[in-house]
Amino acid sequence: MAENRLSADDLIWPLFIIDGHNAKTAIKTLPGVERLSVDLAVEAARQAADAGIPALALFPNTQDERRSESASEAFNPDNLMCRALSAIKSAVPQIGLIADVALDEYSSDGQDGLVRGGEILNDETIAVMVKSALVQARAGADIIAPSDMMDGRVGAIRAALDGGGFSHVQIMSYAAKYASVFYGPFREAVGSGARLKGDKRTYQMDPFNSDEALREVALDIAEGADSVMVKPGLPYLDVIRRVKENFNVPVFAYQVSGEYAMIEFAARAGAFDRQAAMLESLACLKRAGCSGILTYFALEAAKLLQR
Ligand code: PBG
After folding, report:
1. Is the CB of 125 under 6 A from ligand 1?
2. How far, in Å, is the centroid of ligand 1 from the Cα of 147?
């Protein structure tokens, strides 16, 4: 009688990448998740493919000395992200690669956009993101995922991809991305948290709003997004459902780092059964209408579901 099902095919696994060889580092606020050097990320990609996971979402932890105010490392064709994309693409070609595009992974201040006089520069940021998306596509990204929430970035990236010979590369836009406290552990994972002054409320959405989510999604689809994302996941099931009912593109949810951490820490404290909480939270995202879920539980859940 089940109306919905969950399978490995629904799960996208986010990976944090670091420099080095055979290196992994723990993330204090994200227990059980490790940042991986490129060679270990290739191994992880192999495991993911074997478990039936269709795609990975990559996030680089850029070294301090490579970060700058101009975030120019974002379009260095040999940056950590590009090296990870091309290594995984050649070793595990069957897995899809989703490349995050935003400047917080390369900037010295942890904001997703360029900053001048305390203000985010929308159009200048887009120019950098376009260059970043192009080096990522060249390195093997199948899907470009702008997570920055600047206005007009989807259209600009689409035009650049088409012009650069990458018309087959898709765009998954973080369309309804809320200014959420639940991104805390992620910011530690990519190294942007300690630098971040202020917040991201001038470009990320107000948690009280949901009509605005529909407007953001409509704009991104009009600009050429192939799929859209709602983020975070579990606190925003109503938004996922509204997007699903109003648009006919795939909608993805991101079960973000803070959601993962809540389950993990609560389970460690003996509040509930960890595995059951993991599977129930994913089932609920599926029921709300998602075509797929980005989750740090992906590998573990995929293995369980495969059996
Ligand atoms: C930033 C980005 C964030 C996440 C994905 N891309 C954090 C932010 O906007 O500050 C959050 C993911 C998570 O919390 O798991 N471009």
Report:
1. no
2. 7
Contacting residues for 127 by C-beta, under 8 A, at least 6 apart: none
The rounded Cα 116 to chain-centroid distance in angstroms is 26
pLDDT (tens place) for every residue of the chain, 307 residues total: 899 999 999 999 999 999 999 999 999 999 999 999 999 999 999 999 999 999 999 999 999 999 999 999 999 999 999 999 999 999 999 999 999 999 999 999 999 999 999 899 999 999 999 999 999 999 999 999 999 999 999 999 999 999 999 999 999 999 999 999 999 999 999 999 888 888 999 999 999 999 999 999 999 999 999 999 999 999 999 999 999 999 999 999 999 999 999 999 999 999 999 999 999 999 999 999 999 999 999 999 999 998 7
Centre of ligand 1 from the C-alpha of residue 256, in Å: 8
State the pTM of this model.
Answer: 0.97
33: helix, strand or coil? coil
Ligand 1 pocket check for 102: Cβ under 6 Å: yes
Q: Which homologous superfamily does the CATH classification assign to the domain defined by 8-306? A: Aldolase class I (3.20.20.70)
* Interval between CA 54 and ligand 1 midpoint (Å): 21
CA atoms within 13 A on the CB side of 162: 10
- Listed by start position, the domains of the chain span 8-306
Give every CB contact of residue 137 below 8 A, 6+ residues apart in sequence. 99, 144, 161, 164, 166, 169
Measured distance CA(46)–CA(95) in Å, rounded = 8
> For tokens 């940042």, what's the residue?
35
Q: Is the CB of 112 under 6 A from ligand 1?
A: yes
For residue 174, the one-letter residue type is Y
